[in-house]
Design goal:
170 residues; ATP binding; transmembrane; Alpha-Beta Plaits; alpha+beta; four-stranded antiparallel β-sheet; transferase; kinase; 2 domains; EC 2.7.4.6
């Protein structure tokens, strides 16, 4: 502020730079250098308890993804409710919360060109029982059981990826 109580040129430049940095930080959660994208991947409790984490990570790396961050955690009910808030009015929500709190999960930030679509293609259809028929080489066919216990999660858009990555890591 200047001596008259207003903002001077220097103050405005600092404010613009801070706003630009803040905007860049939020929007860059799902995008990276060289045109790469980032997406959130979760190996759910059935995948962790079924000892599929090593297999899933091997598939991820062999498919050209870089694992930028990872965290193994046992989610509490409040975290699951907030993370899956968009599903809170659906009939399956209580069972989703129970399932996601039933054991530890492995949460990863994956990066590569076209990461979101490529990860979703790799994991296959949401219903693992259908994936076993229509996408037998998918991760859900390998380790999922059904529509609910489907072993893995993947962001479905750049906006979702940014929100989900920031939920766990930033």
């Amino acid at each position: 502020m200047n001596r008259h109580g207003g903002f001077g040129f220097t103050d405005c430049v600092v404010i613009i730079v801070l706003v630009s940095v803040a905007s860049f930080s939020i929007s860059s959660l799902a995008t990276a250098d060289l045109g790469n994208e980032r997406t959130l991947a979760i190996v759910k409790p059935d995948g962790v308890s079924g000892m599929y984490t090593s297999s899933v990570k091997k598939i991820i790396l062999e498919s050209g993804f870089a694992i930028q961050r990872e965290l193994t955690v046992h989610l509490d009910e409040d975290s699951v409710r907030r993370f899956y808030a968009e599903h809170s009015t659906k009939s399956f929500f209580p069972s989703l919360v129970k399932y996601m709190t039933s054991g530890p999960v492995l949460i990863m930030v994956l990066e590569k060109t076209n990461a979101i679509a490529d990860w979703r293609a790799l994991i296959g259809p949401t219903d693992a029982s259908k994936a076993k028929v229509t996408h037998p080489d998918s991760i859900r066919a390998m380790c999922g059981q059904d529509l609910e216990r489907n072993c893995v999660h993947g962001s479905d858009s750049l906006d979702s990826a940014a929100r989900e990555i920031s939920f766990f890591f930033y």
